[in-house]
Each structure stands twice: as structure tokens, then as C-alpha cells.
Amino acid sequence: MPARKTTDESMRAEVLRQLAMLDDLAQHGEPDSLVPTARTELHRLTDGLRLLLTVHEPGDDGRCRACPARLRRRRWPCHVWTMAYQHLIGEAPPRRHSLRRWSR
Q1: Which listed residue, of 33, 43, 47, 57, carries a Cα 20 to 30 Å from 73's Cα?
Q2: Alpha carbon 90 to chain centroid, angstroms
Q3: What pLDDT sits at residue 2?
Q4: Which regions of the chain are under pLDDT 50?
Q5: Whole-model pTM?
Q6: Quick count: other Cβ atoms within 10 Å of Cβ 97?
């Protein structure tokens, strides 16, 4: 198991390093290098986000197919879709109205 942990940590570090590089480029990059990199990276990021969101689509029961069982008790949208909305749209998702009728 130590080899897997090392691989997992290495993968995480590489992803975080790539994100840091893109952040640095966005803040300090020269226009000549920024535009071609942005074109390539924006396509890669949007493709990756679309794939992630596809995996987190609701199933027939109206719950996310990918989230762990303890999180699946909540109806869709799951946390992944909620965070994507917040980051892409820049605001909290619209509140859902409960269809459940409360009885006394």
C-alpha cells in the first residue's frame, strides 16, 4: 500500500502544481504566451469539467450516481454541481422549493 499512497500524493501534487502554474500565468504572464496557453488550457479545463459533471448526473431516482451513499440521500444537484454553478456563474444556485407537503 505505501506505493499507492506515494502515487496518489504524486498525482495530487502534479495537479496542484499545474493549477498554481496557470494561476501564476494568469496573473503575471506575458500576453504573447498567455493567449496560446489560455486557448489550450481553457479547452482542457472545460472538457474535464464537462466529464466530471456528466459523471455526477442524476439517476432515475433523482440522486447523483457518483456521490457516496451517505451523500446520495440528498436530491440532485449534488455538491459537485452546486460548486460548479457557484464557480462558473458566480453566485449561489437558486433555492429549490420542496415538493414535500408537511403534515401535522
Answers
A1: 47
A2: 14
A3: 64
A4: 98-104
A5: 0.72
A6: 6
